[in-house]
């Protein structure tokens, strides 16, 4: 039996960083702009991205720095997702109130 070459060591990626970035990005891009749904889905996804981002950043040194960049990106997007969702809902409510006022005053 011929000698087989040694197996390559597995690259250790950061599932935490990828999860952080993915959930935050989905929350910001997909759900933050849909009324009512943004509070039910975008805010929780932003919080999940925020938590996973923090964990990815904290664990990055023990993994040789793998996932720190993804964790930071997910953290930033998670922080942006939450106020963007709330701000959009406030602006939408303000616009709706203004429209009702215009309709009632004629």
TrEMBL record:
Sorted keywords for this record are:
Membrane, Transmembrane, Transmembrane helix
Q: Which residues cross the membrane?
A: 12-34, 40-58, 70-93
Source organism, top-level taxon: Bacteria
Could you tell me what this protein is called? DUF4190 domain-containing protein
What is the protein's species of origin? Glycomyces paridis
